[in-house]
User: What shape does this take?
Amino acid sequence: MKNWKNNVQLTWMVVLRLLIGWHFLYEGIAKLVNPNWTSAFYLLDSQGWFAPFFHSLTINPDVLATVDFLNVWGLIFIGLGLVLGLFTRVATMAGIVLLAFYYLSHPPLVGLKYASPMEGNYLVVDKTLIELVALAVLYVFPTGKEIGLDRWVLGESCWGKKRTKNK
Assistant: This one.
């Protein structure tokens, strides 16, 4: 932990990683246990520049089933990676990509109305974008190699230096 300015910074970065990880994991499990869940309604509600792409994903049932599978298990594995501090670089990058798709599907722009109610009024910046940026911060300041399973799996400290055993 000598590469962190202080333990407080490391602690709050780990808390941020755990909270985002829990959010991803819970959303994935909630979708997994709901036999009626499908991304079709969300995709069909898409607006903005990329709406035709998201709408096209619902046309073929096999494509939609693949999107649903990738969404559910992506959320679960990203969440587990962040909570456990395991392969955190991969988990954060996958989370950024997934959140980018969510953001592009439902951009918070003036004049766009969505079927699902929003919790507030957003203009360009919404919770999805904030969580995406928080994951980018976690990518730059990886904590899994200090507090997480990456420390043992990867055998390196946070800044790429090999751990040595104290005798």
In short: The chain has one domain: 7-153. Residues 7-153 form one domain. The mean pLDDT is 89.
